[in-house]
Amino acid sequence: MQPKTSLSSDNKSSYIWAIITGLLSSSCCIIQLILNLFSIGCAGFSVLTPYRPFFLSFTAILIIYTITKYGFNSKRTLITLLISILLTASPELVSLHNQGKIISSTNSKQIFVREIETFVVQINGISCEGCANRIKAQIDSKPFVINSKVYFKNQSAIVSVKLGTYKSNDIETWVKMVDFKYGAKVIQQYIETIEEE
Ligand SMILES: *[C@@H]1O[C@H](CO)[C@@H](O)[C@H](O)[C@H]1NC(C)=O
């Protein structure tokens, strides 16, 4: 009998399953974010999205199994739970970031402006939150962009820039530069004046 080795391989396997089911439940959102770092295009993990409820049940089963096996207060259970929840919720977290609801260093740019021009852009072909995130990063990298929000759900973006710096077709071009498969069209455009405090 070798209880130690069998226990440790069992432990590892519960983490591995947490990672696998978590990644699948998230339609590989985290993998897409990593691909973005290396400027690799959208990998089309969105084929997994329709199966999300199915993978979510697997994740739930794994969590229940881990809790019954190791108890609620064990380190094993906590780590498995943490991995599963973070991975599974990653598309929602990325979505909040894409909508500018989680503050990031890129959208805390200090540009002093009194007039902002806002463009509403219809973007066809965004296949997941990870891909939307790549578009947002590209838009935010432009010096006179004040902020941007990219919506995977309705395939659009709202981009605010310093007045007079960019035109509709600049923004359409940036999106195309991320990937030529995207169709980008500015459908609305307006100017706002900000009151000085
Ligand atoms: C997409 O949804 C967001 C928030 O739900 C909204 O503000 C935006 O205007 C929508 N875009 C279009 C093109 O309707």
UniProtKB/TrEMBL annotation:
Return the InterPro entries for the record: Heavy-metal-associated_CS (IPR017969), HMA_dom (IPR006121), HMA_dom_sf (IPR036163)
Residue stretches making up the HMA domain:
120-162
- Please give the name of this protein: 15065_t:CDS:1
Give the record's keywords alphabetically.
Membrane, Metal-binding, Transmembrane, Transmembrane helix
Gene Ontology MF, one: metal ion binding
Spans through the membrane: 15-42, 54-72
Tell me where on the tree of life, at the top rank, the source sits.
Answer: Eukaryota
Give a yes or no for keyword Metal-binding in this entry. Answer: yes
